[in-house]
Amino acid sequence: VQLVESGGGLTQPGGSLRLSCAASGFVFSLYGIRWYRQAPGKQRELVAHITVGGSTRYVDSVKGRFTISRDNAKNAVYLQMNSLKPEDTADYYCNVVIASEDYWGQGTQVTVSS
Hints:
Order of helices and strands: EEEEEEEEEEE
Shape: globular
Radius of gyration: 13 Å
Oligomer: single chain
Number of strands: 11
Number of helices: 0
Structural class: mainly beta
Helix content: under 10%
């Protein structure tokens, strides 16, 4: 199982970024995928989840600003982040749980600062 995140970077408050998670080594279409983030000195938190059927859930702090989506043909999940705030600064990770085991990517860093 391999998850590779990309798309992070530095942006100003109010800006946008689109994160990508490329998956391999498992039957992607059969699993829900989650995006987590971890800010310096804080615990990792679940940001968004997309199910096999495409249903989505978000942590309250990003509702209306972030959108998770998936492309089963490309084995990829995306996180479109709009109206970014300094408090969105964190390392972002995608995650899949297979047979009760967690798999993580290496993360991509997002910094929101003026």
